[in-house]
Specification:
The protein is mainly alpha-helical and 211 residues long. Helix content is 55%, strand content 6%. It is built from nine helices and three strands. The N and C termini lie far apart (97 Å).
């Protein structure tokens, strides 16, 4: 009888110790009573296009500055690569022949333009892609759609307006400043946009941060 009573007391003692250990383990756990871990959710937003932006065959006026800079960048890239193929250690800046620079500029305009799209940054639509300053935003860049055809059409319009010879001579004079000639001289795409946006401080500030 005494042995049975002793065994019951020993089992009760170990049950109490186990319960106490579980209690302390729960309190010491970093997830024990701290509640659910909160996480910040980020959502990417797509730009909302108006009727002109979505359906017009032409580049909307407020996007022509970015588009012009994109085109100037691609023309410069194509011409630089074409000249590098003809260059050598003795003649690092070999001029292209007329047929070569005409074909090169035509090819720059006839590319797919698949690396470019439009984002909405703080309520302002902007082009994004190579040659443009990256926008720190979670906005989705909308590629495809009407944008490649508009860039194609606008690029060829510059070839018709200025001519391949003048564009190439401007490139030869200052390769990195081709955008200044195409986009920033008087009554060009970026100067017209700057004049329009001067009436809207928020939009003007967004443009100036890119220049």
């Amino acid at each position: 009888m005494k042995s049975l009573l002793l065994a019951v007391l020993v089992l009760t003692f170990f049950d109490l110790r186990a319960a106490d250990d579980r209690k302390h383990s729960s309190c010491s756990s970093p997830l024990g009573d701290s509640g659910p871990v909160s996480e910040t959710a980020f959502s990417a937003t797509s730009p909302h296009f108006n009727a002109e932006e979505a359906y017009s065959a032409h580049m909307p006026e407020h996007l022509r500055c970015d588009a012009c800079r994109v085109i100037a960048f691609q023309m410069q890239e194509y011409l630089t690569k074409a000249e590098s193929k003809r260059s050598s250690a003795k003649a690092p800046s070999t001029r292209l022949s007329e047929s070569e620079y005409v074909d090169t500029l035509e090819n720059s305009c006839s590319q797919s333009w698949e690396n470019y799209g439009v984002q909405e940054v703080e309520g302002v639509k902007r082009f994004a892609g190579p040659g443009l300053k990256n926008q720190e935003t979670v906005s989705v860049m909308m590629t495809g759609g009407p944008w490649p055809a508009r860039l194609y059409k606008l690029c060829h319009s510059y070839l018709g307006e200025f001519g391949e010879e003048q564009i190439y001579e401007e490139y030869r004079r200052r390769p990195a400043a081709l955008a200044e000639f195409l986009c920033f001289e008087e009554q060009r795409a970026c100067t017209r946009l700057s004049d329009t946006q001067s009436k809207s401080p928020n939009n003007a500030k967004a443009l100036q941060s890119e220049l």
